[in-house]
Amino acid sequence: MLKVLHLLSSDRFSGAENVVCQIITAFDGDSEVEHLYVSPEGPIRETLKEKNIRYVPVKYLNGIDLKRIVRIEQPDIIHAHDMLASLFATFCVRNIPIVSHIHNNNFGFKGVGPFVTSLAYCIAARRAKHIFWVSEAAYNGFRYKKICSSKSSVLYNVINIEELNNSIKIDPEKYQYDLIFLGRLTYAKNPQRVLEVTKILKNQKDDIKVAMVGAGELENELKNFVKDNQLEKNVDFWGFRKNPYKILKNSQVMIMTSRWEGLGMCALEAMALGVPVVSTPTGGLCEIIEEGKNGFLRKSNKELADKIIDILNNPSLKEQMSTYASENSIKMNSREKYKNKILDVYKKVSGK
């Protein structure tokens, strides 16, 4: 049996953490691989408990605790998720193969930070036995990709559609929204643009209803914007929702305005539930959104608003896009193929 230690730097449930849960649960009932999840202690504990995933928390990501856990657990592989965890594994652990998994594409974003991140990640990339990238955009965004091209592969995220539908069934509440934003209220997700688009939409549809589902450091700023622009009757803030899927299902359109995005688990979830996605042309979203079929890609706020209105005012277009999105999602989300690709890499890098 292979033992895999999944290492993460975050203490809460979001995109990358969702992917890790999808990986681990894809192996349910498989006696070939044992998984454990290691990250800073935090709200993620509750999610992992519900999914019956073994959790080994640390106070914060540090070399002493990681070495101790490795000594006790003796994993065959460390599957490190994103740059920071990959670097920690590289510096703190020897003689255990590392699989690095990159979930975003902010390497190519302008500024000193992404440049330094790219430079630092070169160390982890050289040490890793294999690197998974969640999209071509994530891979191409790494300016030093030539040093790891021979051990890189694109592994598109998948979701458990049955689990999504079961989550909807257990939510007794009723919701009805024209537009939904689902994600962290942080700089990377650029939620301010969602409200700027909403302001434009209100001029064309005075009773537009928007759900903002997520939490983050920008929450107060966003609420002030809503108040200052008289959008209180149009926008509902739901905060972090462990089960947001009925809200998503009962929304007409999803909007995404991310500054960078590896692939976007929430976009995959929206499509699986038949909700078209209108987004800025960012990262891996350009690889899964098909123009006029399951969504639209537009650059300006006015263009985003226009496409949202097109869908809202055209029920037959909405129905057509919804049907295509959900049917295509079934084709895209083969969890068995996903599991087998990961297992092949595990066996190769471990020699087992």
UniProtKB/TrEMBL annotation:
The keyword Cytoplasm does not apply. Residues 23-162 form the Glycosyltransferase subfamily 4-like N-terminal domain. Residues 173-326 form the Glycosyl transferase family domain. The keyword Aminoacyl-tRNA synthetase does not apply. Its EC number is 2.4.-.-. One of its GO terms (molecular function) is glycosyltransferase activity. InterPro entries: Glyco_trans_1, Glyco_trans_4-like_N. Keywords: Capsid protein, Glycosyltransferase, Transferase, Virion. It is an enzyme of class 2 (transferase). It holds the Pfam family Glycos_transf_1. This is Spore coat protein SA. It comes from Blautia obeum. The gene is cotSA.
